[in-house]
Amino acid sequence: MIPAIQRLLAFFRARGLRLVYLTVGSELPDYSDLLPHMRAFAESAGNTRGNHEHEILDALAPRPGDAVLNKTTMSAFHSSGFERLVRAWGVEQLVFTGISTNSCVEGTARDAVDRGFRGLLVEDGCGAASQSLHDATCANFARLLGRVASSAQVLVELASEPPA
């Protein structure tokens, strides 16, 4: 999935399209800002701001000027200021990549669609703990919520649109 996301990042940057990086994890060293169902996992992984486990992979690192928001819930709409940001930008469609397809990506994508955004899940730009979880989420999203497409399909479609 990393090469697919890298291609999308390069294309979005070249076309002046907006990017938002989302991290998930505690803002506090004692993890007290996380809901109980997320706290034990974050503690066991050391996922708190300032720790390596909380960082974005170097291969996908944000550049100066890229928006980077942290969330403390599965969906970015509940704990990060994400909705305020994309609405201020006048965004109507969101393209989703990341980990985990069936958790954070799905949670944010579902909430986006419920709030009136058009959602597109990049099938080869997402990953989950198992292929079956990934596939089930992609199938359900395509059936009920939005579009699922490969990074190659997304790039072809976006290339046919005038630059931002």
| Structural Rg | 16 Å
Strand order of the largest sheet: 3-4-5
CATH architecture: 3-Layer(aba) Sandwich
Mean pLDDT: 95
Q: What is the domain total for the residues?
A: 1
The unreliable regions are none
Distance between the termini: 26 Å
CATH level 4 superfamily: Isochorismatase-like
Taken in chain order, the helices and strands follow as HEHEHEHEHEH
- Indicate the percent of residues in helices: 40-55%
Number of helices: 6
Structural class: alpha/beta
Strand content: 15-25%
Principal-axes geometry comes out as: globular
Largest sheet: 3 strands, parallel
CATH topology: Rossmann fold
Number of extended strands: 5
Describe the structure.
With 164 residues, the protein is α/β, with parallel strands linked by helices. It has one domain (2-159): Isochorismatase-like (Rossmann fold). The chain is built from six helices and five strands. A three-stranded parallel sheet has the order 3-4-5, with helices on both faces. Helix 1 packs parallel to helix 6 (151-159) and helix 4 runs parallel beside helix 5. The two termini are 26 Å apart. The mean pLDDT is 95.
Characteristic terms for this protein:
single chain; 164 residues; alpha/beta; two-stranded parallel ribbon; 41% helix
List the helices and strands and how they pair.
Layout: H1 2-15, E1 20-24, H2 36-45, E2 67-71, H3 82-88, E3 93-99, H4 101-114, E4 118-127, H5 131-144, E5 147-149, H6 151-159
Parallel strand pairs: 1-2, 3-4, 4-5
Helix pairs in contact: 1-6, 4-5
